[in-house]
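Worked example 2:
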Amino acid sequence: KIVNHSFIDLPTPSNISAWWNFGSLLGFCLIIQIVTGLFLAMHYTSDTMTAFSSVTHICRDVNYGWLIRHMHANGASMFFICLFLHVGRGLYYGSYTYFETWNIG
């Protein structure tokens, strides 16, 4: 009943488009950044003498370390793309005038 009330019977405006998805994508990108960052931090050393070798260790020796590293690097770019599109959509549609929605995004 809670799922039905929250997702299926949720009143949404008829003019909603794909431009309204970027807030959710921002949250998803942030979760990906946190998770991949934690996995990378388990194997990274920040000493100036061993930093490069720890990155090569992550890419070569850690299972799917290359994938986690590239997801983290590209996830940062995707986060800022979604952020700029989210803010741009808000400015274009004048969403900044609805002060009640500022707490939820």
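The mean pLDDT is 88. The radius of gyration is 19 Å.
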